[in-house]
Amino acid sequence: MNAESPLPRKRAARLLAPGIWGIGLLGLSGLGVFPGVELAARFADADGLSAAYAAQLASSQWAMAWALLAAGVLARAGRPLVGRLRGSPALDRGWPVLVAAAGFAGAWAVQSGLFGNVPHITDATSHWFQARIFAAGKLAAPAPPCPAAFFQHNVVVGLQGLWHTKYFPGQALWLIWPLRLVMMPLAFALFLAGAHRIVARHFDRPAAHATVALLAASPLLLLLAGSFMSHTTLLMWMAGVWAFGLQAADAENPGRAFGFAAAAGFCGGMGVLTRAHDAALAGLAIAGFIWFSRPARPFRFVPILAGGLAGAALPLGFLLFWNHRLYGSFWASGYHWAGAATQSQTPIIRDTLGFSDGFSAARALKQTFWTALRLNQALLGWPAALPLLAPALLWRPVRRGNWICLAAAGGLYLPYFFFHYYGFELEARYA
Which residues contact 47 (CB under 8 A, 6 or more apart)? Predict the structure, then answer.
């Protein structure tokens, strides 16, 4: 039995080869069979799918078929070249720097060439507005004499006569005004560098090389990195938490453990200062990964805890000061969650979490499907990238880490299933 066991695996690997799937999709497309159109029609409203949307889905299937076929050919033809590249120590050492530089250049190209170095979404204009206030050396500007004329639903004209962003101030602090045009490409480059270290620690360097290359080429990440939104900045800070946290866990003496933990704590505090809810969710997942991948020796709990608290003290202290100065309470914020007291003279979007008359379970399912479709198109720029998760998870050898990563991704998205807004600007940014 043992001698014959590799044969079924080889056959399964051939069946999962991208070229085979490409040929199959070409056949279905040629016959006019488009499963994506049928699936989308089941989730559509009573009016059904528009002709333009159905045509786009069909076009995506054709593109996916040719992409898979090309991937199969390239995988076979490029295997010797990849082997030679992996055998080059200089390229192995320099790859993270090259990819980070490419990510910086790509984000800069999107920001300047596509967006004209101007924020286009109300969230981003709110951060930009607050960054200009910080550049003047103030926490807030005086409220305008006629607030209604300056209405922007992500900017607070406070009851105490102060004018400022509704968001936590981390993104505005990152947009250092003299350097504001390079800060988002820099955040993307630092995120890629941190991601490489994290993947190399949990998997291996070839996996890290491939991961950061895909991240650097992701249209979704490039759009976010060029948009002055806070998502890329949060990714940078949380990658810092993870990378420094791993080094703290691996440290061989208490002093180094304290230092790396302080760096991780500072990054975590800045993550909370940037996007508090996302940072809290990601922090739980990161803590789990670090805990279960720690070395066999005793965990240096005391210096790591002390370092983390010391590092987080400055950003979290500033957040409490910000809340108290602008809203009169350490625990108030401008997010205006349902049930919270009004903080602005002008209307602010009232965020909700959970089902209501205006947001049913059926609506949540529909939004999840929309998000998956948009992520499918935008994550890697491929017409249908998500189905490739199946063969990636099933290929031998099966890695438990792959399934843990998938479960963590699902866990991070779960709270957004109950969130009333799915963020259609810049594709599936809530995924």
Answer: none
What tokens does 167 get? 């968001």
Cα end-to-end span (Å), the chain: 44
Is the Cβ–Cβ distance between 180 and 107 less than 8 Å?
no
Residue carrying the six token digits 């930009």: 128
CB 312 within 8 A of CB 268: yes
**Angstrom distances, CA of residue 129 to CA of 123, 141, 423:** 10, 10, 21
Name the token pair of 60: 């995506």
Domain spans, the chain: 1-87, 92-349, 352-431
- Contact call for residues 225 and 185 (beta carbons, < 8 A): yes
Cα–Cα distances (Å) from 34 to 21, 23, 60, 65, 374, in that order, read 14, 14, 10, 12, 18
Helix runs in 110-230, H state only: 122-135, 170-174, 180-202, 205-216, 219-225
Q: Would you mind telling me the total number of residues written for the chain in this entry?
A: 431
DSSP state of 143: P
Q: What pLDDT tens digit does each residue of the chain (431 aa) get?
A: 444 455 555 555 555 577 788 888 899 999 999 988 888 888 777 778 888 888 888 888 888 888 788 877 877 776 676 666 666 788 888 999 999 999 999 999 999 999 999 999 899 999 999 999 999 999 999 999 998 889 888 899 988 899 999 999 999 999 988 899 999 999 999 999 999 999 999 888 888 998 999 899 888 899 999 999 999 999 999 999 999 999 999 988 899 999 999 999 999 999 999 999 899 989 999 998 888 877 767 778 899 999 999 999 999 999 999 999 998 888 888 776 555 667 788 887 777 778 888 788 888 888 888 888 777 777 666 656 677 666 666 665 666 767 777 788 888 888 888 887 776 666 666 65
Distance CA 421, CA 431 (A): 12
Q: Which amino acid is at 215?
A: L
What is the rounded distance in angstroms from the CA atom of residue 199 to the CA atom of residue 256?
Answer: 22
Chain position carrying tokens 């922090």: 283
User: What is the C-alpha to C-alpha distance for residues 153 and 119, in angstroms, rounded to an integer?
Assistant: 15
**What pTM does this model have?**
0.79
What does the block give as tokens for 34?
């488009």
Is the C-alpha dihedral spanning 12, 13, 17, 23 positive or negative?
negative
Asked whether the bond before 397 is cis by omega within 30 degrees of 0, the reply is: yes
H or E element at residue 157: strand 155-157
